[in-house]
Amino acid sequence: MLKEFKEFAMRGNVVDMAVGIIIGAAFGTIITSLVSDILMPPIGLLLGGVDFSNLFITVKEGATAGPFATLADAQKAGAVTVNYGVFLNKVISFIIVAFAIFMVIKGMNSLKRKEEAAPAAPTTKECNYCFSTIPIKAIRCPSCTSDLTVKA
Questions:
Q1: What are the residue ranges spanned by the domains of the chain?
Q2: I need a labelling partner for 144 at 20 to 30 A (CA). Which of 3, 6, 120, 131 fits?
Q3: How far apart are CA 11 and CA 57, in angstroms?
Q4: Model-level pTM?
Q5: Of the candidates 74, 100, 76, 71, which has an alpha carbon nearest to the alpha carbon of residue 86?
C-alpha cells in the first residue's frame, strides 16, 4: 500500500498540481498586498481619504457604544459589524487575480497555436484518370497525357 501511495504521489500530474497550488497561494498573497498596500490607498485618497478596510456597518453595539473610528476599534469593543470595505478589497483582489490568470492562459494558448502552425499547402495532386501523383499546377498528366482542365 505504501508503494502504491508513493507511485500516486510521485506522478507528474500530482506533483505539477502541488507546485501550481503553492505558486497560486504565493501569487494570491502578492495580489492581496498589491490591492491593499498599493492600489486602494490612492483610490481612497481620490475618494476623499477613505480607507476601504475601515468601511463597515455596525449591526449591534458592543461593550462600548459607537460610533467607532476604525474596524479594529469596533471589533475590540465586541460590536457586530458588516465589513463591506474588506469585502470590496477581496473582490478587487479576485478581479486582478482572474485577469492575470486570463492573460497567462491567453499567452499560453497563443504560443500553442504558433506551435500548431497550419500545414503547408499541398504541392501535388492525383490524376483523375490514372491516379498517378502529379504537380498541383499541372494541366496535363505526364503519365497518361490526359487533359486535367476537363472534369472527369
A1: 2-50+83-117, 119-152
A2: 120
A3: 49
A4: 0.54
A5: 71
DSSP state of 128: T
Cβ–Cβ under 8 Å, residues 70 and 54: yes
Burial classification of residue 129, based on how many CB atoms lie within 10 Å of its CB (0-12 exposed, 13-18 middle, 19 or more buried)? middle
Using CA atoms in the order 32, 34, 39, 41, what is the torsion angle rounded to 10 degrees? 80
For every one of its 152 residues, what pLDDT tens digit does the chain have, with 9 covering 90 and above? 888 877 776 776 777 788 888 888 888 888 878 877 888 788 878 877 777 778 888 888 878 877 888 888 888 888 889 999 889 888 887 888 788 778 888 888 887 777 666 677 888 999 988 989 999 888 889 888 888 887 65
Q: Which three cell numbers stand for residue 152?
A: 472527369
